[in-house]
Amino acid sequence: MREEYRAELAEVTQTLVDMAEGVRDAMRQASAALLEADATGAEEVVLGDAETDARYHQVEERVYDLLARQAPVASDLRLVVTALHIGADLERMGDLACHVAKIALRRVPEVAVPEELRPVVGDMATTADRIAGKIADILRTADAARAAELERDDDEMDELQKQLYGLMLGTAWRHGVEPAVDGALLGRWYERFADHAVNAGQAVLYFVTGEAAAPAV
Amino acid sequence: MREEYRAELAEVTQTLVDMAEGVRDAMRQASAALLEADATGAEEVVLGDAETDARYHQVEERVYDLLARQAPVASDLRLVVTALHIGADLERMGDLACHVAKIALRRVPEVAVPEELRPVVGDMATTADRIAGKIADILRTADAARAAELERDDDEMDELQKQLYGLMLGTAWRHGVEPAVDGALLGRWYERFADHAVNAGQAVLYFVTGEAAAPAV
Questions:
Q1: Which residue among B60, B169, B177 places its CB closest to the CB of A168?
Q2: In this complex, which of A64, A68, A181 lies closest to B184 when CB atoms are compared?
Q3: CA–CA dist B71, B65 (Å, integer)
């Protein structure tokens, strides 16, 4: 019974790893499509989100199944339910990658991001990619040091968002309202992607070690 | 045992009702503060969010407790876990009310919303209030017709968001970039508030009737 429980938990973990890698790829591809006005790449991201949703559904089904059949004790129970929170964060990260891809699509064949914003948006994309990569890492290795880095990564993302808004609200801005509205939303989406990743990362550490103070939700 | 289970479930439901009413009040007060540049009102919303968070924590504790002590059967299990999803949506709605309040605070003593946007922002606030009110109603009355209305309310919110963006991107816009960036974020927050309410409403219907096809998450 205990062994069966562990095996089922490992399956949930593997599905979460697949989700984490999937949303990381999605955001990477969405960012590339955004900065290169690549319609095909952006469309792939939007279509690919159904797979993330399906995996989240799998996580849910497995968790319910596990709870019903194994009736885990209180501490394990909390841990198993944490998988749902992680899945929900990852699912939302996939949605945010779609939002970025849709901004790219709305402006094709133009690049949606004016030239002077591209370096900072590129940095946001790089930070998002690094953060998302850590979720899968922590799921696989239960590395607490890696999880601790996430707060710093998130601060970096907040700083980049401030830079982005500063450029749009500065006196040198010559692009008018539309790219600023897109820029405001883009900034928000990268920032939310990082927030969800930090939430997921803290919950993941608890999920794989059972040792954090509380799951982040 | 069964009776005890029902009593505990009723307690969870009551905490969710309190959360739903709390976030409804928060968004109503945030919207009023936004449109009247009322710093005190906006600050109250920001400070008050801790109570919503505390209630969400209560929902979590009660759900874990209930799962551990009552070990519900598979169908009840799914239902009990749904309370966590509802709580998470409501908690997020509280955050979004705070975001609106913070925009108000950033521009005080100015009104953050330019005059020609106020009617549509006012309509978004009214729609948000109506939607949030339905969550508590459905929790109390299990009224499926009320839950069915939420999709239409959400469509209305999407339509209002389009109107808002149309005004900011139209040729008559004379306010430059900053109020447009605020406006883009405000539109997004009301829209997300409605999205979470629709999610919560569908999950609530399942939670109180056990009869919907699946919980919305």
A1: B177
A2: A181
A3: 10
Q: Stretch A97-121: mean pLDDT, rounded?
A: 96
Condensed to tens digits (0 to 9), the pLDDT of residues A38-64 reads 999 999 999 999 999 999 999 999 999
Contact B93, B194 (CB under 8 A): no
Beta-carbon count within 10 A of A105 CB: 19
For testing contact with chain A, the best of B80, B95, B102, B181 (most A CBs within 10 A): B181
B125 vs B96: CA distance, rounded Å:
12
Specify if B215 maps to a domain: no
Q: Which domain holds residue A139?
A: 2-209
CATH number of the domain within which B89 lies: 1.20.58.220
Q: CB distance B169–A181 less than 8 Å?
A: yes
Interface test mutation site (partner A, options B177, B189, B192, max chain A beta carbons within 10 A): B177
Q: From CA B53, how far away is CA A5, in angstroms rounded?
A: 32
Which of the 8 DSSP states describes residue B113? S
Cβ distance A81 to B81 less than 8 Å, yes or no, reads: yes
In total, the C-beta contacts within 8 angstroms joining chain A to chain B are 72
- Among B56, B68, B180, the residue with its CB nearest the CB of A177 is B180
Number of domains in chain B: 1
B25-59 residue pLDDT tens: 999 999 999 999 999 999 999 999 999 999 999 99
| Of B93, B89, B111, B94, nearest in space to B183 by CA | B111
Q: Within a domain: residue B214?
A: no
Is residue A214 domain-resident?
Answer: no
Residue B13 CB neighbours (<10 A):
18
Token digits of residue A172? 């040198």
Q: For residue A91, give both structure tokens.
A: 């699912």
List for chain A the helix, strand, coil content (%; round to 5): 85, 0, 15
Residue B216, domain member (yes or no): no
